[in-house]
Amino acid sequence: MMENSFAFRLKELLEHHKLTLQAVGTALGISRTAVHKWTRGGEIDYDNLRKLAAFLKVNWIWLRYGEDALQDVQTTQVVELPMTDLRRRYTAEIMESETRMKLAQEGARIVTWEWNLISDEVTYSPNVEVVYGWQVNRNEDFWVHLPEEDVLNMQAMYAQAVAEGTGCECDFRIYQPDGEMRWISSRATVVRDSAGRSIRMVGISMDNTDRKVAEEALRNSEERFRAIFELAWGALAYIDLDGTWKRVNSSFCELLGYRAEALYGMTFQQLTHPDDLATNLALLERLLAGEIDRYVVEKRVRHHDGHYVWVRARTALQRRQNGEPEQLISVFEDISAQREEQARLQARIADLETQLAATR
After folding, report:
1. Is 223 within the bounds of a domain?
2. Residue where a domain stops, chosen among 160, 180, 213
3. By C-alpha distance, which of 153, 155, 164, 152 is closest to 189?
4. What integer pLDDT is reported at residue 169 of this predicted model?
């Protein structure tokens, strides 16, 4: 350790005042480890330097840079610069910019924060209590209000970002004083010094509870729809406007013997009997043109094993909010038994008519 160094002067002062590392850390509101790093040559930031010098009752310039630096400062003549129009405009612009930034932060419920990785000190923008629900002055004030799962995930994420000197982002939950839980989106980046060491992490956090609630409601809605779609009594299908199968339920798969994944690469035109396709396409054309709201068609559809199944297909058009067609919704009913009975009756009628003609 060099005699003319910050670490040397600090250790001498601690020995002179008979101060422990813990006593200094407590007085400055930082960890004992941070003070220990300073005594071993670690960097100290400006704010903590000023607080440390005040606590030790010494000049901060002397403490950090030594006797020569202090003498240079004391012998330097201060030059007073007049408040020119340029400086006035520049000062006004800064104040206006800071005001706009503050209003934007408060309106969007955005918190800015900075974590000193050397001293473990953390600072937040004044609106942190409005967004988080708590005043946060130390990391310990923050972690106690988060679920343990989120704490472990975030600490691991931050440790990796610090080690790699990269950015990170996450969503976490924080409990409010009334017990309500809010969702916070946070994004941060690591700042390195000239030697490439990670010294600070700066970030922003904003309340995104409304988005999370909306996403959860959407997921629940989709799950309910999926349950209804799968449990529906009939065979249901969503079909793209070009005829591609978009989504089918298990009843439809059972009807035709296909797996859903196999159907998604096919169109209804490929499965419709050639003799029935023209009628189906003509009705579809009228539906897309807005001439009809829905149509019903009886047709034969090819089963996976090659035979055809008679179905009654009821089809409607789903439109987007702007009125443009989005997709077809079809319900398929197996009418093979009805068709067989109809064919049997027609054959019987034809047979009876033949017998009646023969008796005349």
Report:
1. no
2. 213
3. 164
4. 92
CATH code where residue 23 lies = 1.10.260.40
Angle between helices 6-17 and 46-56 (to 10 degrees): 30
DSSP 79-102: PPPP--HHHHHHHHHHHHHHHHHH
180 plus 240 within the same structural domain: no
Specify the pLDDT at position 188: 92
Check whether residue 208 and residue 301 sit in a common domain. Answer: no
Look-up of token digits 């034969």: 300
Q: What is the mean pLDDT of each run of 10 residues along the chain (360 residues)?
A: 78 90 89 88 86 90 80 61 61 56 58 87 88 88 93 93 90 92 92 83 90 80 64 80 93 93 94 96 94 94 95 91 89 90 84 78
Joined tokens for residue 102: 């503050």
Handedness of CA 181, 187, 193, 197 (dihedral sign): positive
Quote the DSSP letter at residue 30: S
| 63 in Cβ contact with 24 (< 8 Å) | no
Looking at the domain assignment, is residue 156 inside a domain? yes
CA-angle at 197, arms to 193 and 201, nearest 5° = 75
Give CA–CA dist 199/205, Å, rounded: 20
Q: In what order do the strands lie in the sheet with 110-116?
A: 122-124, 110-116, 198-207, 181-192, 168-175
Range of the domain at 128: 106-213
The confidence score (pLDDT) of residue 152 equals: 94
- Does residue 288 belong to any structural domain of this protein? yes
Alpha carbons 179 and 6: distance in angstroms, whole number: 47
At 284, list the tokens.
């579809």
The per-residue pLDDT for 66 is: 82
